[in-house]
Amino acid sequence: MKYCGQRNWFSMRNSNANHPLFNIQGFLRSRIKDVRDLINAIPLDYKQIFFAFISTRLVLTLVGVIGRIVIKSPDALRYSRFIFFDIWGCKDSGWYVNIALQGYSMQKNFLGQTNLAFFPLYPYLMKFVGFLIGNRPFIAGIIISNIFLLVSLIYLYKLIKLDYEKQIAMKTARYLLLLPVAFIFSGVFTESIFLALTVMSLYYAKKDKWLISGICGFFSSLTKVTGFLLLVPILIILLKKIKYNFSKLEFKHLYTLLIPAGFGLYYIFLYINSGNFFEYFAIQEAWGRDILNPLSIILSGVISSSFTYNFLAGYTIISMILLLSFIKKIKLEYFVYSIYTLFIPLFSSLESIPRYTLVIFPFAFIFALIGRSRNNDMILSISLALIQGGLMLVWAGGIPLQY
DSSP characters for 308-342? Predict the structure, then answer.
């Protein structure tokens, strides 16, 4: 009997091993091991970038929530039921939400403005992702912006590492997150997706993968008006590769023409919807984007009695000084990109200059050069973090500083 009892006990134990509960536990252990193996396979550099991305987003969210609660500005907009989402939107965000929900329309507001002024890639991505999460385009916009911000960081690191040492590349990615208004990258705006596509196009051009470069550039010019001008730095890269010998041009280099094709497609779309071949220019006029003298605009901002325009003019002047001071350190293709990205908005106004120039990634590279030494790096990082924190506090609180 004793032997039979032991036999029955072992039989029960073996039968329990096949119980569904034991199978689930085994499955979970296996999946956890798979996840650990996947995490371990990720290069340490990418882990550091991801940590910087997550930590800065969490801090900025906390600062933004505090700003919204403390300042209580009547200009603060609501796009959701949650304050930690609302802090990532402003007036332009509403136009993207409008396109995602209702599509493009010729209907004008009381200022004569229409949503046709906004390029289609970002709002239609918001529409698609918003549908997947229960018709919430605003939250979809936040998700899209943050995903592409992470992509921007990784590809910026890879791009800079092609020409400079690894330490400078990593610091460039980190300083991108510390730029004065870098919190905008996580908001419902086009800056993060535009930067990601731009940097990817530049990276793949340098890697001699012209089709991928052209595709990225195509979508870049479906995101912002300056996207089609990416053709210029891409052509500079191409000329360097063929050493200015046009006999070395190949069929694959024609893929660069995909870049302006995105803007061309949008232009045709405007014509079909309006019947006016010059509708794009009419739209810009309705938004007050006339062609003016940039130097006069900057000077008027300096002498203005408005603190907002003093701030915008000062921001612009400092940006110009930085670029010119490091002109010999910046690759020609990156410098050309920086110049047209900075000056094109200045032909109409100072408004939103900090946001428009946020995609000038060479600023992050310049800070990486300044922060080569440990002391400089620490001082610069803390200073930029405090500046960004203060601006985020004001912006999330709803105070309109036009950035």
Answer: HHHHHHHHHHHHHHHHHHTTTTS-HHHHHHHHHHH
Please report, as a single letter, which amino acid is at residue 108.
Answer: K
Q: What is the pLDDT of residues 233-284, one digit of tens each?
A: 999 999 999 999 999 999 999 999 999 999 999 999 888 877 777 777 777 7
Please say whether the beta carbons of 336 and 232 come within 8 A.
Answer: yes
Q: How far apart are CA 345 and CA 316, in angstroms?
A: 11
Helix (H) or strand (E) holding 62: helix 44-71
Backbone angles phi, psi at 86, to 5 degrees: -60, -30
DSSP 300-312: HHHH-S-HHHHHH
| End-to-end Cα spacing for the chain | 86
CA-based Rg of the chain, rounded to a whole angstrom?
Answer: 25
* Confidence (pLDDT) at 9: 44
Alpha helices in 77-209 (DSSP H): 83-86, 91-102, 121-132, 137-161, 166-176, 191-206
pLDDT digits (tens, 9 = 90+) for 190-219: 999 999 999 999 999 999 999 999 999 999
Which tokens sit at 11?
């039989």
How many Cβ atoms are within 10 Å of 95's Cβ, its own excluded?
Answer: 17
